[in-house]
Amino acid sequence: MVYSSCMLALNQDKKFLLSTVSNARRIVLSSSDLLSSKKDGCQLFTNMATTTTTTNGGKPPCIVGNYNKTPPNYVPKLARISTWWKYAPPPPHHQNLQNKKAFTTASTATPKKSTKKKKSTKPKKVTTLSLTSKKRHGNKITMVTAYDYPSAVHVDRAGIDIVLVGDSCAMVELGFETTQPITLDEMIHHCKAVKRGAPNRPLLVGDMPLGSYEYEDSDVALRNAYRMLKDGGMDAVKLEGGSAARANTTKKLVEGGVAVMGHVGLTPQAISVIGGFRAQGRTATRARSLLDEAMRLQDAGAFAIVLECVPANVAKVITDTLEIPTIGIGAGAGTSGQVLVFHDMLGMLSHPHHEEFVPKFCKRYARVGHYITKGLEEFRHDVEQGDFPSEEYSPYVMTEEEKEAFDLLLAKDEEDRRTKHDETIKKLTEADEYEQLSLYGDKDK
To answer: Rounded to two decimals, what is the model's pTM?
Structure first.
């Protein structure tokens, strides 16, 4: 409500006039009411009489009077009336308008975009630090070998922590009897394939093959380790052995920015020295030396150590002594984690009548080799019997018009093609008979 400028006057009948210009109404208030009433300002305002015709001869509202006769307590009373408008609740129709405006604003307002960041569904990358954290919190670590794109994809999908491109590739992939023959270039070739199959989540570790890091000049090992990382796409490398010389090489690589995983116990690259694939640490002296080797590698900066083919109690002592995690293979359940060869654990080379290259400590979680052999035998049978491919597996066809056009093209040189065909058969038949001749009698039969 808007009030115009007001003037106060006291007439002869001791009446006060309070005029406003809103709605052309005049408010007349008795001075006796203002001076003697003890009611609240809100009640005083409700007792006011309004009129526009009874005074001032029907003229527009105005205020006349003598300012000198204004009672001393009048201004505070008027102030009470003015203050009431500031704190009084709005009339019902005004409240309804406010509600309607609020509803309209809420219904037409553009919803604000949430500034809260959505949680990423992408799995976190496994790192050397996260492996140490796993050991500290008592969570087991998993590691499986992979040597090509398909195996890397399967291992990654299974959520395995570490993918090891092991030099065991020489035996299970390339057919060698030991791991010694594989070269650095061949290892890098397989590392690249594994990197493409598991590019993001697992920690990728590549075996440094025999002859790539044992030199007294540790710069050779560093150069080859760089190749494993830059060319092969690995996150870390693995070295076998825990001697003082191997610890120095480990320290050199770590200082050069290469993460190193150690390996003690049975070290397959050294089978020429240890006399074959034999368990290690079964005597007190040898067990103690394994502990010293592991501690030496930890001091050199290795982030983890593989314990292969050692007694379970020895592996547990080493694990409890070290701050870095241990990965066991044929070393009992007391290690920080376990590793198995992909082909061994899935029975890739298994056959109903024989088993090849399967260590005693390896649990076979599948008999994939059985199903592979069965599938290949069924394929051979279907092809030989003419059952494959059937129409179901021959989806590409020509229209009838194209078939007729093709037949016409064939008819143009049918005689020439038949002549060439007969000549070719004659040559092949003569060559076959020549190969079947016995040059030395029955000895060649």
So the answer is: 0.68
One-letter amino acid of 59: K
Sheet containing strand 26-30, edge to edge, reads 15-19, 26-30, 49-51
d(CA 249, CA 222) in angstroms, rounded, equals: 8
Lookup: tokens for 139? 């969570």
SS3 state at 165: strand
What does the pLDDT look like over 27-85, one tens digit per residue?
A: 444 444 444 444 444 444 444 444 444 445 554 444 444 444 445 554 554 454 455 44
Active-site annotation holds for 216? no
Residues with Cβ within 8 Å of residue 170, at least 6 apart in sequence: 176, 178, 179, 180, 181, 182
Taken in order 426, 431, 436, 441, the sign of the CA dihedral is positive
Annotated catalytic residue within 308, 391, 415, 433: 308
Distance CA 259, CA 40 (A): 86
**Phi, psi (deg, nearest 5) at residue 304:** -165, 165
The C-alpha angle with vertex 111 and arms to 105 and 114, in degrees rounded to 5, equals 145
